[in-house]
Amino acid sequence: MIIEKYLIKGLAAWLILSVSTAFANNVDVEMLNKRDDGAKMVYSLDIVDVGVGGTVTWVPTDKGHNVEFIAGPDTAVLPKKSKMNKSFSHEFEVPGIYLYVCTPHKAMGMIGLVIVGDNTNNKDQIANVKMPGKSKRRLAKLIADIN
Fold first, then answer.
1. With the C-alpha atoms ordered 118, 119, 123, 129, is the resulting torsion angle positive or negative?
2. Sign of the C-alpha dihedral computed for residues 72, 75, 81 and 85 taken in this order
3. FRET pair for 38, CA 20 to 30 Å: which of 31, 32, 68, 75?
4. φ, ψ for residue 91 (rounded to 5)?
5. CATH number, position 120
């Protein structure tokens, strides 16, 4: 009986700690000229999932890239475009899907999504953003990959 009591308390403590860390995480995304799968002018991750309060940092592994947010949840204030070849971090406070591009390579399909708080309520809004060149097909694929 005593062992069960401590086992239950330990399990409860573990659940509390694991749930609290699930909503505030940090993710690094590299800006690449070529990924291991052969894709060119891409971010290392196509879709990033973070909890509310989570931070994404984009790292310029290769030269000539930046991050520019072009769409997000209606109530979110989108960050300003990052400088070329500079690391850029953003903490996400508003749940939803955010669409970002590399300014000079957006027509080549260098785009990505951040999903905050497992909230995909604005998926249709993001899917309807007009995109140039290869980004149009790429965005449709990314949207299809979201459950």
1. negative
2. negative
3. 68
4. -95, 125
5. 2.60.40.420
Residues 6+ apart with CB under 8 A from 77: none
* Alpha-helical segments (H) within 52-97: none
The one-letter amino acid at 72: G
Residue 10 lies in a domain: no
Tell me the H-state helices in the chain. 2-22, 123-127, 134-145
- Is 3 among the domain residues? no
- The predicted model scores a pTM of 0.83
> Tens-digit pLDDT profile for the chain (147 aa)?
555 543 344 433 333 333 333 344 899 999 999 989 999 999 999 999 999 999 999 999 999 999 999 999 999 999 999 999 999 999 999 999 999 999 999 999 999 999 999 999 999 999 999 999 999 999 999 999 996
